[in-house]
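Hi all, a correction to my earlier message: I attached the wrong file for Site-specific integrase. Here's the right sequence:
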Amino acid sequence: MRITEAAELYIALNVYQQDTADTLNRVARLFETRSGCRSIESIDLVAIKTFRDETLKVAKPVTYNGYLRYLKLLSKWLFDEEYVQKDWFSKVKSATLPIAPPKTVDDDVFLKAITYLKTDSGAPQPAWFWLIVIRFLYFTGVRRRQLVAIEYQDLDLKKQVLTCSYRGSKTYREWDIPIADDLIPDLEYLIRRAEDELGRPMREGDRLFNVCLFYHRYKPDPKNNGAMRREHVTGFMRRLSNKIGQRIGAHRIRHTTATVLCNPVDEEHEPDIFSVQKLLGHTQLSTTRNYVKTKIGRIRTQVNRMSLPK
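and the right structure:
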């Protein structure tokens, strides 16, 4: 059995998220190409080392580690189901990564991006749409995949609540989060523009964010009823970063949301990290902690409270 065939079988029996299926298929193809190993029976440590070396020539260690997680998952399943006699990946270690603080977006970068989108005629179009996307990402902390999966019925403007649907969830869960007051005019405007393009009121099943409605150069997802794809968000963020000369991206904004909420301006109030965990949809508090960059000012305040006898 080819490795790609094994991946397809595993997906058919165990995977329910299209994103996960696409990634596993891609990793299986990469392993076959870079290791020179085609069948599951021919996998060995030499093939794994070859894959690692070839991958690290063109990708960062963090990318290799992501591939390795999927390959370990597939290998363990093949061993458990007795398709192979040994789980060769079981003792393969991930590449060592430096532990750096979370990457966030400073206020001046937000200001530069927003000003550029508002004033520059050469800004990515439709600029009004992308402004709303940036603001929405900031005030909600949602991922790209969640943003593009939001449907009209997930939004309750009267109660100011958004249901983060299982459709865009990495863990196939749903949870509710509040919609900030500042976002209400944005969302009302977005809905009006969408209804103008559709020629009808928005209804259940319509995607809330769909740039394809407003700009024909964006090609809709043929597998998902003409919906916007998360790659559209990635491409926009890359172009925006190049134009303003500063890095900005959906996941950096997500880290920023966590950092801002856990570093309140009023240092007399302790941050509510459990609320932040709920907002971001993390199942483990430790994950939320990894998202937060504690500002040096808060640490300085704590240090200056220390004293020694004189």
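Sorry for the mix-up. DSSP finds 13 helices and three strands in the chain.
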